[in-house]
Fold these 2 entries.
Entry 1:
Amino acid sequence: MSELIENLKNEIIEALNLEGMSPADIDENAALFNGGDPSVAGLGLDSIDALELIVLMERNYGIKLKNASEGKEIFRSVATMAEYISKNRTK
Amino acid sequence: MAVYIQSAAQISIQSPLCDDWFTDPILREERYFRSEEPDFKQYVDPMSARRMGRLLKRALASAKKALEGETATLDAIVTGTGLGCIETTEKFLLAMLKEGEQALPPSHFMQSTHNTIGSLIAQHLKCHGYNNTYTHRGTSFDCALQDVLMQFDLGALSSALVCANDEMTELYFQLFDQIGYWKKEDVKSEMFHNASSEGSFAGEVSATFLLERDRTEKSLCRLDGQVLMYQPDELRVREAIDELLRKGGIGWSDVDGVVCGYNAARSNDEVYARLMEALFPDVTQIYYKHLFGESFSASAMGYYVAALCLKRGEVPSHLVFKKGRTTTPKHILVYNHFQNKDHSVALLSC
């Protein structure tokens, strides 16, 4: 799992063009989205980033999200993403 | 109705976001050179900038630079761009090829339209006014400017940003190269004075002008008017210039200089040479594409050159293509044509 988390962090940095960030800067348990509330720690991603993450999961792991309501939990943090990927990946 | 160019800013193959090119130009010999980038962090928050392609960052930075110190409400943003965000478009299309039209990155898709540029500037400046984009190859900026001037005439605007934005990717450079758009060898300055072959050299331009109805101390110059023409003969050009001179309240002998888009390509330069010989044989001709290269947005730099010459009351020697009678510039015409089809001429005065 730790290898998957590390890979995922690198892929997120590349897909979202998070210049100047390294995997070590991303806490895998921190919130990816803060809903516009800057007091919530994390990356502070927005809805377009969510689309990029959906594309990333499909392209790199062969996962197609069918139920949009699952997204909120899956994309809560890098750790929840990794957990979902490990159970559902097709490549 | 005359309007005033309050300020201008550029990012190009010269030093960015400054007027160093006027006193200390960089002369390049390469056929292809990309823009000098400023420190974008001063103008765009890095978290916002991460999703922007290079051209968007340049457009936003030059717009913010042109507005530095301005407090007036902006009524409109009008953009001229020949190719739009071509670098992002290429990334999007290449991803389509690679992924078999599946799982495409949305950011590249969203930015692959021409009007992304104007809308992004409006978003960041919180300008909810008129926003339009003109895409007419080498006269894109001229058309954008015409729109703004007409709206000033109608009294619909009191201030507007007019922008020109074009980038040149390696792929596009190569495609243009195949149709003879560029010189086959390094560019020497003498090629501009004796264009014996076709082809120019490539540049990139992001230029922004702030236009306002009223003159202020800061104003660079007055823009008396502009005329667009399609395949004009000499008579039509004379009529257009007559119209502009009438608007400016001056005669032919009051014109102190004409800015022309000489670009070292024989067929392009012949048009300017023929017209200038017929219309303004004794007037100083000013050129600029030897500093900024050729691109669909290059004509905007002709306006920038004229505006700064008027503001500073001089035409530096490195901008003089052909020396005419010596005067302190008070009235300068800017003449641009694209492939001898679309022509534009404008009168700028101090």
Entry 2:
Amino acid sequence: MLRFAFKRLVSLSLSLVVASVVIFLFVEVVPGDPAAYMLGMNATEETLAALRDQLGLSGTLVERYLSWVGGMLRGDFGTSYTYRTPVSEMIGERLWISLPLALYALTLSTLIAFPAGIWAASKRGSVADVSVMGLTQLGVAIPNFWFAMLMVLVFSINLRWFSAGGFAGWESGFLPAMKSLTLPAIALALPQASILARVMRSSLLDTLSEDFIRTARAKGLTKRQALWRHALRNALIPVLTIIGLQFSFLMAGAIIIENVFSLPGLGRMVFQAISARDLIVVESVVMLLVFAVIVVNFAVDIAYAAVDPRLRVRG
Amino acid sequence: MSFMKLGAASALAMMMATGGALAKSDIVVAMQLEPPHLDPTGAAAGAIDSVLYSNVFEGLTRFDADGSIIPGLARDWEISEDGRVYTFSLAEGVTFHDGTTMDAEDVKFSLDRARAEDSANAQKVLFEGIETVEVVDPLTVKVTLSEPDGSFLFNMAWGDAVIVAPESIDDIKQAPIGTGAFKFANWVQGDNITLERNPDYWGEAAKLDKVTFKFISDPTAAFSAVMAEDVDVFTAFPAPENLPQFEDDPRFEVIVGSTEGETILAMNNKVEPLDDVKVRKAISHAIDRQAIVDGAQFGLGTPIGTHFAPHHPDYVDLTGNSQHDPELAKELLAEAGYEDGFETTLKLPPPSYARRGGEILASQLRAVGIETEISNLEWAQWLEQVFNGKDFGLTIVSHTEPMDINIYARPDYYFQYDNPDFQALMDELSRTTDPEARSELLKQAQTIISEDYVNGYLFQLATPTVAKAGVRGLWKDAPTQAVDMTGVYWE
């Protein structure tokens, strides 16, 4: 087990090194000079040179890569070219919107998907099943930004229940902040819930046809008891895997919804940083996301192996 | 009983007293772009000036709503006979928002900082003529120029020339300390910036207690924010197609003003065949300005015939030099040896005037036989390829700096117009301080570039502001990129 963990750790470190090189090169080859972007059309050549110096853009590619990676190892993500604040601070601030938004959306999606999926599976072929399947098909098909704009039209412009965008800030209290995240969370949760409900249903149906369920029924459990006591727990494994995947998608992929509601989250920060050529922000945020995904995968690998000894050999 | 009566009466009196003050004293102003940081002397980003100019920071002189130059922190000045020495008398009793006094030392510090060798001032050109800055006494500053400069007072009104204090300069990018009627309160990055009234302001106090600038980049989100009344004012509203809807809605008022943005089809005067004035003239005659204004800007914008703002008193209407005349354009092309037309590039930056305008322009040019290869660029790419690399044939861009006709005197400027006569004229202009003589020179300058067909002159960019009914005192035009809130109030 220890050897397995060690081998995994080596491959994790290698992945991180490769990822950092790839990210750095991709971002650095993008044409466009950050200093020229900041100073605009009237800047003189000497002003540009002065600013490049201040930003630490004048070294060679290798020097800049090493200082970036070295900084990150010490927990220093560098200083944003445009905002001139530490990138780690900026990530910290934005994370306080992106993370709660992702969790909120995930909670909503689970709260919708579980009952819907279980209900549909337990009444297979009934009107309930068909309507859940139909609705979830629709939920997957509707683009979430369009749904978001529709909700703004109804709930913000006509009914005035919510503001049309922006973030109230946590300092204004928990409820106002959550309120400004509600419409975005619903917009994000809808397609996720649809997918999750369908996975829940089919996974539950698969389990319900297994031998151990028949045994349970033979021992005298009702259909309902067998479902809740035995089938559900076994059906949860693929569902949890999907939830895990959805969470990383929600963290990084909320860009469009953040734009529709003008929420200052991580996705929008990267988006703005790309057009402003704030390369250090792009590099550091992407690296952080890669790091998160790789570490989560590592943890999952270890957990699988702990549960299932067969995987240790293969690993 | 009488006690209760008294109580009721005083309650009534209080209600009546507050009745007058019930008018809202705070306002939410939205704009598309967020400032990258809050130092107006350290970046070109117009959003910095939009939030801070005149509200938080003030210079020696300042722009008024109509674009004229009026006294700022300098209440008065004397200009020496030879036009080289400016002696400014500063306002008395001015303090920065951190409580320190603003005096001649701060002026000297600000100007010396902007023109220093390692200065990152985006408009360093404004300070190039300064030879020395001397402190005469705490309220008097003497600025000596290396040669007379008729636009010096104008230069000092720019947001890049505001007065800052050495005590607070290190944190200026995050916590700006100025002398204005509002002081910086808070910045929620990515969302909003709050300013509060400065109770110790030296001039006429602001009428509002609190101003929140909110940043909404998406045009659809902008529309929703106004309709849901999340914001009270939206400056430079990004979706002109929605304006008629606001005009019809009694809740809102639409104010369409002019800006300093000459929107031009810039031509690379050094590449074939655009180095031939006949070809440039042909292109100018191929352009149907009104079609571009209608198609790309939904009718907002005034056609121009030269690089000068139409609302300026010295403007000359030269649109007649380049009337839409495709037949004439074809003849000119034939005369220049291009009867079969030619092919060139058209590089477009992100704003919709360029992207939408570019499509319309391409079809107008095709009608006279000129094929264009359109490429859409981001700003950073545009600056690198077009502006610095000069690797382009045609491009569309709005020159938003005020009074920037002098860029035509810079032969290495991206459109590469090199005319010694024009350069001499600009030299003369900067040596001239007499207003009438200056006006005459400016008119000549406009005519020269129009008749040389340096660029295709399209239209003056308009700026629509959507405001809730009852908001008063907003600037209509944008003589500089400022959203001056010092005179704004609710009716």
